[in-house]
Design goal:
The protein is globular, with a radius of gyration of 19 Å. It has one domain. It is an alpha+beta fold. Strands 1-3-6 form a 3-stranded antiparallel beta sheet. Strands 2-5-4 form a 3-stranded antiparallel beta sheet. It contains 7 helices and 6 strands.
């Protein structure tokens, strides 16, 4: 989609007299490098990248919802909306029946993770999928924790427990979350899982 839009812009410029040619491939790669991030996910089937909740709601819908929310209050204190930040935090701690889908910045780290659940996923799933995802649609552990802190006048007992659990996540997992039901739209590659059946080091 992005490459098509850049191509159309080049066609428009070509109609203007004495206009320079748009070098579409160069622009495409520059935009991808600055606005997208490559992520990986272990899964058995193509459809295993769909969330348990809100299976019809796309990622851009959540982005629009957040924009309207921040516009209505006139400021942007939290990185992510508070309610979703709590849901994202508990997803990262194993309550995965949520609106989120987990991905890894580097799937090669999971087979040796300190988290036995992460190792089990890396060693048992059939395929390793690669996605090129807009940065605006990715939720990071740091952003989630910051939003939980900023979204409360005082840290309640439940929020404190969640923050404590999030701080225990092994850093080598490089886990991030995608909010939306259309992660499959961003898939760029799929290969047999090279770590399947291999015990972690």
């Amino acid at each position: 989609m992005l490459r098509n839009e850049i191509g159309l812009a080049g066609q428009q410029v070509a109609r203007w007299e004495s206009a320079d040619t748009i070098e579409g491939d160069g622009i495409f790669h520059d935009v991808v490098a600055s606005s997208y991030v490559e992520l990986q996910r272990f899964q058995n089937a193509d459809g295993d990248c769909e969330p348990h909740r809100n299976p019809q709601k796309s990622a851009i819908s959540y982005v629009h919802d957040a924009a309207r929310q921040y516009s209505s209050v006139g400021h942007h204190l939290e990185r992510y909306p508070k309610g979703l930040a709590h849901e994202a935090g508990w997803h990262m701690r194993g309550l995965t029946k949520s609106s989120f889908v987990s991905l890894a910045k580097d799937g090669s780290n999971l087979p040796s993770s300190q988290d036995p659940w992460a190792r089990r996923i890396a060693e048992s799933t059939a395929r390793l999928h690669t996605y090129m995802v807009p940065r605006a649609m990715i939720w990071t552990p740091q952003g989630i924790m910051s939003s939980i802190r900023l979204g409360a006048n005082e840290i309640s007992g439940s929020a404190a427990r969640l923050l404590s659990k999030l701080s225990e996540i092994p850093t080598q997992e490089t886990e991030v979350l995608f909010l939306g039901a259309n992660l499959g739209d961003y898939r760029t590659a799929s290969e047999p899982n090279p770590y399947r059946g291999a015990p972690g080091e």
